[in-house]
UniProtKB/TrEMBL annotation, chain A:
PANTHER family: INTEGRAL MEMBRANE PROTEIN OF SOXR-REDUCING COMPLEX (PTHR30335), ION-TRANSLOCATING OXIDOREDUCTASE COMPLEX SUBUNIT A (PTHR30335:SF0). Its main location: membrane. It is found in: Cell inner membrane; Endomembrane system. The keyword Transmembrane helix applies. Its EC number is 7.-.-.-. The complex is composed of six subunits: RnfA, RnfB, RnfC, RnfD, RnfE and RnfG. This is Ion-translocating oxidoreductase complex subunit A. It comes from the Bacteria. The gene is rnfA. Belongs to the NqrDE/RnfAE family. NCBIfam families: PRK05151.1, rnfA.
Automatic annotation (TrEMBL), chain B:
It is found in: Cell inner membrane. Its EC number is 7.-.-.-. InterPro entries: NqrB/RnfD, RnfD_bac. PANTHER family: ELECTRON TRANSPORT COMPLEX PROTEIN RNFD, ION-TRANSLOCATING OXIDOREDUCTASE COMPLEX SUBUNIT D. Part of a membrane-bound complex that couples electron transfer with translocation of ions across the membrane. The keyword Phosphoprotein applies. NCBIfam families: rnfD. This is Ion-translocating oxidoreductase complex subunit D. Keywords: Cell inner membrane, Cell membrane, Electron transport, Flavoprotein, FMN, Membrane, Phosphoprotein, Translocase, Transmembrane, Transmembrane helix, Transport. Residues 347-366 are annotated as: Disordered. The gene is rnfD. It holds the Pfam family NQR2_RnfD_RnfE.
TrEMBL record, chain C:
The gene is rnfC. [4Fe-4S] cluster 1 binds at C369, C372, C375, C418. It holds the Pfam family Complex1_51K. Its EC number is 7.-.-.-. It comes from Pseudomonas linyingensis. Its cofactor is [4Fe-4S] cluster. The complex is composed of six subunits: RnfA, RnfB, RnfC, RnfD, RnfE and RnfG. This is Ion-translocating oxidoreductase complex subunit C.
UniProtKB/TrEMBL annotation, chain D:
Residues 1-22 form the signal peptide. Part of a membrane-bound complex that couples electron transfer with translocation of ions across the membrane. This is Ion-translocating oxidoreductase complex subunit B. The complex is composed of six subunits: RnfA, RnfB, RnfC, RnfD, RnfE and RnfG. Its main location: membrane. [4Fe-4S] cluster 3 binds at C119, C139, C142, C145. It holds the Pfam family FeS. Residues 30-89 form the 4Fe-4S domain.
Amino acid sequence: MDYLLFLIGTVLVNNVVLARFLGLCPFMGVSGKLDPSIGMGVATTLVMTLGGISSWLLEHYVLLPLGIGFLRILAYIVVIAAMVQLIEMIIRKASPELYRALGIYLPLITTNCAVLGVPLISVREGHDLLQAALFGFGSAVGFTLVMAIFAGLRERLALASVPAAFSGPPIAFVTAGLLALAFMGFGGLI
Amino acid sequence: MSSIGIASGPFAHDRSSVNRIMLHVCLALAPATLFGLYLFGWPAINLWLLTCASALATEAACLRWLGQPLARLQDGSALLTGWLLALSLPPWAPWWIAVGGSVFAIGIGKQLYGGIGQNPFNPAMLARVALLIAFPLQMTTWALPQPLGSAGAPGFVEGLAITFAGAPLADGMSGATALGHLKTELTLGHSAEAILAGDFSLLAALLGNSAGSLGETSELLLLLGGAWLLARRIIHWEIPLSMLLAVLLLAAIAHQINPGRYPGGLYHLASGGLLLGALFIATDPVTSPVSRSGRLIFGAGCGVLVYVIRTWGSFPEAVAFAVLFMNALTPLIDRYWRPRAYGRNARGKPLPVGRQTNPLNQEGKP
Amino acid sequence: MFNLARIRGGIHPAAHKDRSAALPIGGLPLPPRLYLPLRQHAGAEALPLVKVGDRVLKGQLIAGSPAEMSAPIHAPSSGWIVEIGPILAPHPSGLTVNGMVLECDGEERWIELDVPANPFDESPLVLAERVAQAGIVGMGGAIFPAAVKLKQGTRHEIKTVLVNGSECEPYLTCDDRLMRERAEAIVDGARLIQHILRAYRVVIAIEDNKPEALAAMRAASEPFGAIEVEAVPALYPMGSAKQLIQSVTGREVPAEARSTSVGALVHNVGTVYAIQQALRHGRPLISRVVSVAGSCVNNPRNLEVLIGTPAQALLDACGGLSLEPQRLLLGGPMMGVALPSLQVPVIKGATGLLALAPHELRNDQASPCIRCASCVDACPMGLLPLEMAARARADDLDGASDYGLRDCILCGCCSYVCPSHIPLVQYFQYAMGKQDERRSAERKTEYIKRLTEARAERHAQEAAAKEAVKAAKRKPADKPTSEVQS
Amino acid sequence: MLMATLALAVMGLLLGSGLGLAARKFAVSDDNPLLKEIEGLMPGSQCGQCGFPGCGPAASALVEGQAAVTCCPPGGVALAEKLAELLGVTLDAGQMSAPLLARIDAAQCTGCTRCYRACPTDAIVGASGQIHSVLRDACTGCARCQEACPEDCVALVTQAPTLDTWRWSKPQAV
């Protein structure tokens, strides 16, 4: 039950995009169409969950025992970047379709600040291994949820007659703000 | 190779129009509004007039600025937005809440997206949430009902002072809403049953004689208006039904488990803006799904969120948040829950040729 | 009644049928000239078989069908062919179509008709061929060659022949009057079709707002057990084949399939009557019943009209116009088309001629969609008209297709109920036209590619042949050596 | 310090070799399938209206982004839309001009067969000494015949709409 609440909390209440403001570049960049945004979300979920686990292992079995915690950011980046490379290769081999859909955004996952930020937050909060994994997974699910919602909204906006001055990114930013407003309702749930 | 100006059929029409729909909704809101205005007196009347007028003014300014025909003002949508916003505000709120809310609702919530029909979020609820977060104090100061002409009721001039000069409410004049009261008392460790037994009267709540925003007080009059809209087929039945059922069901289950912590379904139904939301706000066609299954899901989602946020969240009232969140989900619902097309299965594939059987109606006479 | 399935959606437009339905089918004086488009049917244009100046007799074949998917055209009256060339088409564009102009001599002299003895003794294919030769097309407005449908039907197991007497379009009463006045002939025609298709049963489906037609058809079909007359609810678009099949048999025609795949075939009562006339009396299709109605017409009624009669003559026969109509329509107000002028002729698929005043018409001032979903509720096909139109507007043709454009029957229910007065059907027509354009461009590219390849191959062969000739010329000199080698 | 350097070096070594192995295991051949696909889409009449020597070079120019998706008049809007989708660019349909077709002025034609021989798609029919005419369905509007004609009697014209090519226009925007 605790873990379930923990998960809901990470997905909705402390949503990685709308409450922590991490991962904003893919949030704006890949959300034009629904299918790629869900693909991006799935890829990110994979990376973040694995990233959560591997960085926890790195933290507790390498960095802390060796007393080199100050290298945390550097080490995390190296591990996560390597993992993204690996996943990119696998996707390219397994599903050229998905690879073409995600295009240049797959390497972008490396520089998705959420991918680095989530493990760092996880360490700061002192999670255990399961919590770290859940935290990574939950954050990514929250990310995917928001991506999907936002992509759905943007697909509709593409058909709306938005005034010329606001069409495109401006109205997308306004919408993102209003979406965050809607998510504020979850405040205090956990 | 083209045909500019050549009209295509059909040439007949059922004479429906957007402004008739909007005016029907306004008319359905009228009884509950009039009663609310009577209950809360002159400040409420000022507030209501101010909100509607500033909504119309904002709409007119935006139409002018965007170079659209001013005749669009007549479609009644801006009036309805202002009206709904007024109904969701504390009745004695100061003037700038009304004006600011209207400008936000029409300007950002609606015209920024291109005007009527283009907005993804319900403008009135957007404004209410924005106001609630920006001005929590003003948005949660509830006047107690003081019907026009009753002893303590403010007169016309005092009403103006309350609305425009920000005259502070006297101590005896303000109170908490039923939901807010319950929330506060629960955190103090009292049991729900005891709290409700002491202060909550179902009958008063249904009739509307309790603190709250202008439009959420008289449940019976709201039901009356909603039933009329349903009968005129202006709104669909799916959203109100599934939304109310979801709240009732969750409340009943929770009440069974722990009556000391969770009040029953009727309490939820009769308090706050649930009925106003279910009948008039969630049913806004622009921001709700178009298919029947989609509307059922939308309503149920609203209901669940209302209950969850009311019970465990930090806000005592949740209709606005729930509606906004489900508004955001509407494009996805519309995409995945479509009606089944003739000759196709639910997933959009053609029905198999030749091996179709219908148990209800075989070939030939039964 | 109780075994009828409910169809989805649909609308109940005001019928406006009373005035024209009250009067019997009338005639009109022979017009001086008849205008005969060479294409009054779906498929290939008919080819003229006569020359300018030729004298023709009533019922004489004057244009033949070049393909299976076509229909021949017969002279509606006797006279001379005075012109073969472009004439104004009964089409909203106001463009012309190839056609013939027949100057009537007023004698109405028939050609000698080949009257078959007993059609029930003949084989189905022979009968279907006779229908083809009579130039009969779907008279409910679909203008699909009737014989093609019959021949397709003979290749499938047809359980139910549906005779479509629903006539769901407002204003139109031509089928209603035809059923009241010529019930025996229609029942006879239905039996002939049953014979051709070897169908198990025939259902004559009539909307329940036509009690007289129902009574007349019931009386006429009394002696024949296999023929049922069924009242279907008055609901537009009940007359659409898919909806009628669902309503009567309870089965849906699978998407992208024909109605024969569920063992049903639908023919309009007008078509059935024309088939009966052809098979019993040898008469080709040269006239039809047309409803002349609308509030601008002085005396709305049904007229039996020779094909090719200009619209103006019909209005004159109904007492002329009481006021200037806002719009002239060929067909009903839901699926009919606006006419460019009163000079256009009546064609085989013309069900009605309407002269409508402004108060009977849709408001042309569209406002933005408010997603009220009225169109979704009204759509008899279960589609999402608002999404289709939004995508058509953004030129997202694949998106529009995905939201149902591929299944749309253009019935217009969505437009009828739209509170924003959005011309949804025109958006669909536009998108379908674009798709059509795209397809024909693809076909052309394909064709050009084939031509280019063929040309390249021919050039290669020619070059090879030249090379061979050259080699042959050289050969004699080479010959001795090759012999030595071998 | 040493520890930190060592740890990072070991990590880099391990991850690098892991990635190297993976790259070998999940290797994908790198030739561009796009080029073939686009070549297949082109009309193949080598008419040269795009400004490239033929359909093949045009396809590679398209892949490299040197040519606009609207460069092929014979392919029309249909081809442009497909190319735009394949290449991931947005198409402004307004850029496409209406397709032109050749028309031979019968009064001036001497039946010299030069246009007939120049036509890359065999769209001109007629024997020597007889008046030639153009087949609508096969003409790409490439203007080769116009260049070849000694009498200057070939004109490139837009098609007049007929009932078959007439289309409904988009309703005026709301």
